[in-house]
Amino acid sequence: MTNRPNGTLYIGVTSNLARRAWEHRESMIDGFTKRYGLKQLVYYEAYEDIRSAIQRESNMKHWPRRWKIRLILEMNPQWRDLYETLA
């Protein structure tokens, strides 16, 4: 999640991406995303196993910012909000 291209980044894990992204968009959850106005879903990865997703989240949170931006640019070079593409 972000607030604008090259803006503040948030990484999280959920079992229901569409619901969780909607909650962030609507500022329903107090915390980091609400405080910084992070409402745009610009990158995601899907995993069958929640343990794999949690491990990936943990790893990515320790990455340098430029690595995270590189992933976003590979998937979404225009930093479009991907929320509408979720089924």
Overview of this protein structure:
This protein is mainly alpha-helical. The chain has one domain (17-85). The chain is 43% helix and 0% strand. The protein contains 4 helices and no strands. The protein is globular, with a radius of gyration of 12 Å.
Keywords:
mainly alpha; 4 helices; Putative endonuclease; 87 residues; globular; single chain; 43% helix; UPF0213_domain; hydrolase
Task: Give a nutshell description of this structure.
The chain is mainly alpha-helical and 87 residues long. 43% of the residues lie in helices and 0% in strands.
Helix content: 40-55%
Biggest sheet layout: none
**CA-based shape:** globular
Question: How many DSSP-defined strands?
Answer: 0
Give the N-terminus to C-terminus distance in angstroms. Answer: 18 Å
How do the SSEs run, as a string of H and E? HHHH
Q: By helix and strand content, what is the structural category?
A: mainly alpha
The proportion of residues in beta strands is under 5%
Radius of gyration: 12 Å
Counted up, domains total 1
User: Please, what is the average pLDDT?
Assistant: 96
Uncertain stretches of 5 or more adjacent residues:
none
Q: What is the oligomeric state here?
A: single chain
Count every helix, treating DSSP H or I runs of 4 or more residues as helices. Answer: 4
Domain GIY-YIG: 1-70
GO molecular function: endonuclease activity
Family: Belongs to the UPF0213 family.
Keywords: Endonuclease, Hydrolase, Nuclease
